[in-house]
Give the backbone structure.
Amino acid sequence: MPLRSSLLTAVAGVATLVAVASGAAAASRPTVARADVPADARAGGAPALPASVGAILDDSLLGASGKLRARFVVAGLAERLERALGIARDVAAQGSVVPRASQLAILPMLPFEAKVRGRVGTYVLGMWPHERRWRRGALLDGPVPAGFIQVTPHNRDLAISEHFRLGDFLTKNQHDVWPKMLVLREPLVDKLELVIDELQAMGVRVDHMQVMSGFRTPAYNARGVGAGGRARDSRHQYGDAADVFVDNDRDGWMDDLNRDGRIDLRDADVIVAAAERVEWRHAQLVGGVGRYRATSAHGPFVHIDVRGHRARWG
Ligand SMILES: [Zn+2]
């Protein structure tokens, strides 16, 4: 009851609570529930939350950008939260996952322990770098993800923030395997939205930021360690890193952001400058920023993460 009352206080002013389910009938499919967000929260940042709620939802529902449209919580908490918010799962709305701008989705995650012998269902993830000692009976010597977001053909296009969809961050393999497992942390999405804000403030129009690589399963990441320049302990495996470029014309290549008639590292520098400004203003989102030049396989891009301490390369 305390949770219920504090949550209801937190969302005072919410006119309606609705739910959009993407498959409540099938247990294997993740369910998406949405609650309307108060107008003042959209305009001026999220409402102040009681500590008990803050512990669940971080310090704000919508992030520092105010542009998050989804929160990822471990399954048990997601159900408590939905009950507390009075969100009923709506089987009739199955498949209706196109979000309204004013809504916040609560996505339950499968616990990390759902992974057995490197897989969840038929989806292959592999072993996280710090996990092997655990398997031998010793304690973990580092972090593993809190859990997995299940992505299906029904929810892959769900808007998780103003500019990004759930499916944007999937590992690019196992194309025919569903559901796919995704590790993604909201602070990354929040930071990317703030970078877009800064770019716009710098006079760079951003309609579309392409995520070239978001989450990488350890099994997928391992193939590129060394030769491809991937780190064995890459942040991409923890859902808090993305390789991005601005691609308004959606040709799969960086746009000419500095308008010098060439697409090169200087265009990546424009994104780096925006990320730098975001870190000045939001210390909690500090992390890695690396720039990469074009190869025959890809255009210039920028790696951005929220590892918790400053790192720069490239
Ligand atoms: Zn990267």
